[in-house]
Amino acid sequence: MALIVVSNLPLSSAQDERRINVLLMGGIGTTHYLHDYFRDEPLIRYTPIPCRGVPGGDAAAKKMIRLYFPRTYEEMQSYDFIWLRSPEYYYFTTQQDKMMYDAVTDGAGGINDASVLSMIAQLNLAWATSLLQTAFPNEAPVVAEKGGGVSPVGLFMVVINRDFEDPVLTPFIPFGVEKVSCDCGRFVIARETAKTMAWQVGNFPAYAKVPYLIVWDYQEGRTMTTGDCGGSQGWIRPPKTSSDNLYAPDIVVNLILYGTKSGLIEDVEVYHRIKTIFTQFRTRMAVLISLKEFVDKFGANTEKAHIMIRDLEEMGQEGRDHYMDQEFVRCEESMNEAFDYCNEVEAAIKKLKDEALLWVYVIEWAVTTSVLILSSFVLWTLMVRRRLYRAVKTTRME
């Protein structure tokens, strides 16, 4: 089943309003990495609609679209970004095609991977003849005529355009992202006014380089096309080894930010580092709350600890505010302060625990000692002093 998936990070209503709504469609099984990327990113809320390779075939795919695709254009306008991850586009009706096209023209961002242009004619023609493809920067009809534009050579490298005017990919260059080997490249032909953000090099022998990521502004919207198959060993695949693109999730977020004309991740190192901060903070909070509840059971006065935990939650909320405003440096500073305060809260609760358990230990010691003394007295009286001992009298029968 496709469900609306949101980050498990608690957010205020004001923060929730600032999230980017993403409509994710295509070959996105339950284990696809984009689920993990979006689920763990507080800036993003997404709706997944599987419509390629869906168990149950055509009927199941159409059901997913019928259930989760926006029913009205007003609902469609609630989405800020459309991610086309290799959908079988012929499942969409003409009305749905136009709704997505209108959303882009009215300001939504979008990205499609080149596997929309499959080698299978039924697939590439469905996309190449759609209205929505005219809002994307790839010459889909031309590529479709070439049979999908599959690379005759497997591996390629991504080379970033240093002269691109916006810092979307260039901040990642120092982190070695251009050394990552990719496969499943597809031929991309940029439309006349499209700009190239990166090239794929090494997989099309007849060309020195072929566009890998292109972008253009289409009316009020901004769309992109990438030259790999998103689900294979692409540049944005999830990192599994040190030789993979360790910054793939960060790049995906930056592409969405750029497509929605939001602020960009410029300090990559800080952003990459704070990705795990909120998970760690939730863990610390859960431990502190559990510890306080444990102390509560012994009747200790935990009012001070309760106030400290509430203050700690407010500090975490402040850090999330900075994150949602994309002030990542300030977010890190706030969360570091919160972690320092976590240590104070933990020390205070442990002190309460020690005080509460001290009386438990005293009572247990007193009970144990009393039993020892009493049993020793009884043993001494009966077996040693034998004050209550009476010898058994015998009688003689005459």
Can you put this structure into words, describing what you see?
Helix 11 packs antiparallel against helix 12. It is built from twelve helices and eight strands. Helix 5 links the parallel strand 3 (81-85) and strand 4 (109-113). The longest helix is centred in the C-terminal third of the chain and has 58 residues, at 328-385. It has an eight-stranded mixed β-sheet. The radius of gyration is 32 Å and the shape is elongated. The chain is of the alpha/beta class. It has two domains: 13-273, Rossmann fold (3-Layer(aba) Sandwich), CATH 3.40.50; 276-361, no CATH class. Mean pLDDT is 85; it is low at 1-9. It has helices spanning 13-17, 33-39, 57-68, 73-76, 94-105, 121-128, 140-145, 248-259, 268-274, 277-296, 303-324, 328-385, and strands at residues 20-26, 44-50, 81-85, 109-113, 157-160, 195-201, 210-218, 221-226.
Briefly, what is this?
This protein has helices at 13-17, 33-39, 57-68, 73-76, 94-105, 121-128, 140-145, 248-259, 268-274, 277-296, 303-324, 328-385; strands at residues 20-26, 44-50, 81-85, 109-113, 157-160, 195-201, 210-218, 221-226. It has 398 residues and is α/β, with parallel strands linked by helices. Strand 7 and strand 8 (221-226) form a beta hairpin.
